Amino acid sequence: MRNTARRQVVGLVSAVALAGVLLASATAETGTTFTQVQYLDAMNKALDGVRAKTRAQPKAHLEFSANLFFAHEAMIEHISLPILIKYADALTDTGVHRIDINPGLFPWRGKHQPTIDKYDALIKHIRKSGVKLVFNPQYSAIHHKVKSFEEWEQAALEVYAELARRYQPDIFIVVHEPTTMAARMGAKVSPKAWQEFAQRAAQIVKAQSPRTRCGAGGLSWEKKYFNAFLKLDELDVMTLDIYNLGGLKTYNKMIQQAHKRGKPVYVEETWRPPYYVKQPGMTLEAISMIGIGSTKYADLDIKWLETITAYASTWNLEAITPFWTQTFFKYSDGDTDALDPEYMRQIVDAIDRGKRSETFHAYKKLITQWGKP
Question: What total number of domains does the chain contain?
Answer without folding.
Answer: 1
